[in-house]
Amino acid sequence: MKHIYKAITVLGLTAFLGACTMDKAGCDPKAMRDAGLLTKMNCDFSGSYDARSKDKEAQLAAERQNNVLLRQAVADMEKKNALATADVAKRRADVTNITRSVGAYLRSVQSSNPSNQALTEQINVARARLDALQKTPVTSGTTNAQELQTRIQAVEVEVEKLRKQSAILE
């Protein structure tokens, strides 16, 4: 009878220690469809399922924040049509708002994917377009308004490419 208790104790300790060694990556529900009951219990007891859930929630919150920033950037860029008829102060304010909101979006995308080289290159191209817009002198006149619109469209194109590229990563 003592041997049975020892065996049960050893098996229990083994299962407990096995639960402690499970990591989040090893407890992916998609990959564990064919896993055994003990493995699934280990993932549950180790807290790996909860940790994965919290990671996914944090990732979702970050993506929602990116979405908010993107919507703001797009809304600011849609104001570009008004630049043609707006006075100089209004144009400067609109360019400043576009620069601020697009810059915030670019920083957010960069921080959410710092190791993605292709995405970093696309962000750098968008930043260069944004810098060109920011350096464009704002004066009265149709020619200046057209130049601003052209530069804003270039920024829009780069932001759209970046949005598509970052959407692929999700």
Walk me through what this model shows:
The chain is mainly α and 170 residues long. The mean pLDDT is 78. The protein has seven helices and no strands. It is rod-shaped. The protein has helices at 2-21, 37-46, 48-78, 80-83, 88-112, 117-135, 142-169. Helix content is 81%, strand content 0%.
Count the DSSP helices: 7
Report the C-alpha radius of gyration, rounded: 26 Å
The mean pLDDT is: 78
Structural class: mainly alpha
Strand portion = under 5%
Low-confidence stretches: none
Per the principal axes of the C-alpha atoms, what is the gross shape?
Answer: rod-shaped
- The secondary-structure element order is HHHHHHH
| Cα distance spanning the termini | 56 Å
Fraction of helical residues: over 70%
Largest sheet: none
Count the strands? 0
Question: Layout of helices and strands, plus pairs?
Answer:
Layout (H helix, E strand, L loop, with lengths): L1 H20 L15 H10 L1 H31 L1 H4 L4 H25 L4 H19 L6 H28 L1
Summarize it.
By secondary structure, this protein is mainly alpha-helical.
Name the descriptors.
mainly alpha
